[in-house]
Model the fold of this input.
Amino acid sequence: MSYCNEWESHYQAGRHMSRWPWTELVTLVMRYAPPGRGFRRVLELGCGIGANIPFFVDLGVEYYSVEGSQTAVAHVHERFPQLSERVAVGDYTQEIPFSGPFDLVVDRSSLTCNGTESISQCFSLLGPRVAAGGRFIAVDWFSVDHGDYKLGQDAGDRYTRSKFSTGVFVGTGDVHFFDRPHLLSFFEGYRVLNLQHRRVLEEGAEGERRQMAMWNIVAERKSRSLV
Done:
């Protein structure tokens, strides 16, 4: 699929305007890929309006991102003019406009807005751009154990759902959910350093319950092909 127009509409309406780094991502980067250990060239898939950028700017790394929303990228360029040539509008499942090698690729719930084929295409594009020993850190990739998985309709394969009538994914277009074998299938050529399956039971004030379930993964590239 190409970039989801629903997300452009959300950003235009001022929704999903997260401005602060995601804790899980910060924790895993500092544990597994700190710049002091050579992880200094970073590519983020889908930066939104730049929630994680202050973290990477503070680390002093060479940061790049491909983001599908023109509105979101305009926010990033306004807040971080020094990144105007390094944060680009585009569909990273079709083209990554920056050459490698990257020491670190990060994603927080962006690839989850794609179907299986598009995710595979993205990994193919990333292949020659990730350095030997480079790492991929993904957080909050939705699990098939997520309580809202069954609320959506089939969107081409059993892991991709859309047209949610209720729940947290209403109006977000396609949403991808992973089980363990499906998740690991994208990481051929990588060595998994950390794999987390987090389940959170939310209890509302009126007694309603909802199970959230997400994956975090840290994987290291085994070999490198030059761009």
Summary: Helices lie at 5-12, 23-32, 53-59, 70-79, 116-126, 180-185. Residues 116-126 form the longest helix (11 residues). The CA atoms of residues 42 and 63 lie 5 Å apart.
